[in-house]
Structures are given as C-alpha cells and as structure tokens.
Amino acid sequence: PVKTFSIGFNEPEFNELSFAREIARKYNTEHHEFILEPTSINILPLLVSGYNEPFADSSAIPTYFVSKYTHEFVTVALSGDGGDELFAGYSAYQKLYNIRSKNFLPDSISKVVFGQAEKLLAEKWPGKGMLYYLSQKKKTLGAYYCLWKAAERKKLYRKDFYEQLLLRGELYKEYLLQNSTSSDFISNLQELDMQTYMVDDILTKVDRASMLNSLEVRVPLLDHVFAELTFSIPVDLKFHSGQKKYIFRKAMSKYLTPSVMQHKKQGFGVPLTYWFKRDLRDYTMDILGDKSMPVFNYLDYNYVKKQISNHNSGFRDMSGKIWSVLFFNEWLNQNK
Fold this sequence. Notes:
By secondary structure, the chain is mostly helical. It is about 55% helix and about 5% strand. The protein is built from 19 helices and 4 strands. The protein has helices at about 15-25, 45-50, 60-70, 85, 90-100, 105-125, 130-135, 150-155, 160-165, 170-180, 185-195, 195-210, 225-230, 245-250, 260, 270-275, 280-290, 300-315, 320-335, and strands at about 5-10, 30-35, 75-80, 215-220. The strands form 2 sheets. It has a two-stranded parallel sheet with strand order 1-2. Strands 3-4 form a two-stranded parallel sheet. The longest helix has 18 residues, at about 105-125. The model is unreliable at about 120-140 (pLDDT under 50).
C-alpha cells in the first residue's frame, strides 16, 4: 500500500491529523503520524547549518521532522507543493485583491504618505515614474510580502545597517509586479510568488530539510507539462468569486472527503505563538535577552526585547519575527 506521513501538534488549531487520517482510511494507506513538542526547537543549530543562510520560515521545523520520520520507511517521497502558486490558493490573494480594488485614502493624504516611496523609486529606476500600484490604488503591495515591515525595520536595525538596506525588499517585489507578463492582477501575484516565495522559500525549505535526512522529495504538481497547462486556464477558473483554487478543488472533490473539501485553508504552521509564551519563554530570553549576542551588532536590543514583551503579553503575535531573529543570531554564531 501507499505510505503516507503527517506531522501534528498538541495545539488543536495547528493540528490537521484528523484530516490526514480521513484520507488515509479512504485509500487504505499505511499511515504514519508524529506529534511535535516545543523541544523540537533544539534542532535550530542543525537547521542553520543545513540552510546556510538566514531563513525565516519556521515551518522548516516540521518539514525537517516529517522528512526525518519519512526516511525511516522510504527514500523517495511526494510533496504537494506548487498547488497554491499554480491555482491561486494563497489567502493573501483575497486580501491583496481587496486592497487593489478599493482606494482607502484620499489623494491629498496618499500624496504625503507615499511621497517618500515615489522618491526612492525615482532614484532606483529613473524614468519609471511612480509605482504602478501606488499611482493607481495608493498601496505598495510589495511591502505586504515582507515579514518585518519598513517602519518596523527602521526601528529594528541599527542605524548604520538600516541605511544600507532601505526599502530594497519592497521595491524589488514592486518591480516584479510592474514587469509581470500576465495581464490580470491575480496572475501577477501568482507570477510574483513563483519567482520569489516558491523558489526562495517553499522549495528551498523542503529541499534542505529533506536532504538533511537523505530523503528525496519530488514535486509532481510542478511537472512542467502540468504547470504549462495551468497557465492556459483562465484566471476566473482559479480565483472564482473569491474562492481560491476553484477548478482544482472541483477536479479533486470526487477524490477527497467532504470535511477536507470544506476545511479552511491552513498552512504548515508551527504553534510558536504558544511555545514562545510558555515552554520556550526562558529559551528565548536566555538568547535574545543577552546584549552580547552577535545579532545585536545589527539589530537594536531594546526594540527586539520590546517585541518579545509584546508577544508574551498577548498584545501582538510576534512569533514569526522572534523566530527570524533567533535564526539570524544562530547563523551569525556559525559564521564568525
């Protein structure tokens, strides 16, 4: 029988094991599942050495462990990556579509708010004029894709370091959006994700985590013939009346269970929100509460500490950002 593998958590809202079991029962697979505990963060040094660059996606943790456990049974596995990019499945598409479709600010206000961004763009790409999405809808969508927003980075980075970075992340993504070969907005976002998020995050994450465990992971949805076929599908059959992956879901509905089809989209998230407040609270402060850590040669100690405090108080969920700082710090430790 086909062997299937799934990772779960004790925190119910992050745990999708019940849906995996449904499909395993439906197809009578040899199913294996594993629960991750907060102690799984102890693999941080190993992950850093495997990725060999600052990598802010915390789902590298469960990806590593599902690869580790899968390798106990097989040496080659299949992954479902690529479906969201090919069929417009990300939740961000709906949010960005709403931003693009509505003008939230009067012209007089937007001129002040976005004047600096226009100045930066003119310096970066002379002759380009104002960003398309700023001029049309008064919003810079590239900024949406950054974990630490521009205003946060200005406080996060030490002044000398910040001045070297400016808004390059947002501007690069805006450039890709402007120069997209697609004719409609949702397709533009898909193309942006294929050029950035899919290759720099999703596929890199799985490749490095699986190779650390001598597991080969193949991605059938990204077979070039199938991918080329999806490019010929009209966008309103992918993003249909706000429903994401519309045609893909229709095609797969007879193979999946009703509860899986009705389940709200859920990423491969880690319950760091809870772990950093409880089990990993001391772990976090032992590292980021120490001013001598190498990360504070680049980041502002007091601002980082404030974000940890905001997270622990429940004011804001800063778990992803805390993880990014922890990973950056360990990377600096390993590259002294």
